[in-house]
Design brief:
Oligomer: single chain
Number of strands: 8
Strand order of the largest sheet: 5-4-3-6-7-8
Number of helices: 9
Order of helices and strands: EHEEHEHEHEHEEHHHH
């Protein structure tokens, strides 16, 4: 069975059937259609929603730790040196701490450099909290808008039908507020806090296309899809290609050469 690491963030936009899996569990209509279009009959494609996001649709017990009476921004940039906004936005975020009564929560990527970590740790104050937790669900729930760049966390945040702001997104879409001049950070955030109805409608349309499931039961659907395949068997599927070279590369990387 194949489940997915995350949503399309704009870094890659590929659909591949590798010939290894009998079942692909997809998050929403857009990726379901993408895999159905290339399905060679060697696998089943079932739309289940993404199990990782089940907790997003149930209020987290720790949400109060991050809630504030002030307008709250989650800053969550990517780690890619070519795409990250950490260096360009740093001086502007630092300045806004003095001029705007906003609450910032900064969550850097686990692969962020030590220099980036020290930069943003140094900004910690009453209006900015630097966090390292791996559990982002309560933070997503507690914050009003997200500021990022080219990262799939933008989609995870937007699935709550909240406004997402992106700096120099690699593939900007009409549902996000994208800006390319770092000097426009303040005005862009002010605009985002207005929660324009047109923008929110675009967000909703996008969410319905990538992950329409808000019931927190995607894991149940995944298990159901697995059980259905077990019960039906795989006789209806075409024979998979040998893929000997790829199989050898995988086994070599795992140092596992027993062929069953």
């Amino acid at each position: 069975m194949q489940v997915f690491h995350g949503f399309d963030s704009g870094k890659k936009n590929k659909f591949n059937i590798r010939g290894f899996f009998d079942l692909y569990c997809t998050q929403g209509p857009n990726i379901t259609q993408g895999f159905n279009d290339i399905n060679d009959g060697t696998c089943d494609v079932v739309e289940t929603g993404w199990s990782k996001l089940d907790p997003l649709f149930t209020e987290h017990k720790d949400i109060a730790l991050y809630q504030s009476d002030k307008p709250t921004i989650l800053y969550a940039p990517t780690f890619s040196p070519k795409l990250t906004s950490t260096y360009k936005l740093y001086p502007y975020i630092k300045a806004l701490l003095k001029t705007q009564n906003w609450q910032w929560i900064v969550k850097l990527h686990p692969k962020a450099t030590s220099e980036e970590i020290e930069m943003y740790k140094s900004l910690a104050c009453e209006n900015l909290t630097f966090i390292t937790t791996g559990d982002v669900i309560p933070i997503l729930q507690a914050t009003d808008i997200i500021l990022s760049d080219t990262s799939s966390i933008i989609t995870e945040f937007a699935l709550q039908e909240k406004v997402a702001v992106a700096f120099n997104n690699r593939k900007p879409k009409d549902w996000m507020i994208n800006f390319s001049n770092e000097a426009d950070l303040e005005s862009t955030l002010i605009s985002a806090f207005q929660k324009d109805e047109h923008t929110l409608e675009k967000v909703k349309q996008y969410c319905d296309s990538v992950h329409p499931y808000r019931d927190g039961k995607s894991s149940v659907r995944v298990l159901g899809a697995i059980n259905n395949l077990i019960c039906s068997g795989t006789s209806h599927l075409k024979r998979k290609p040998l893929n000997l070279l790829r199989k050898f590369k995988i086994r070599k990387s795992l140092n596992y050469y027993w062929w069953s």
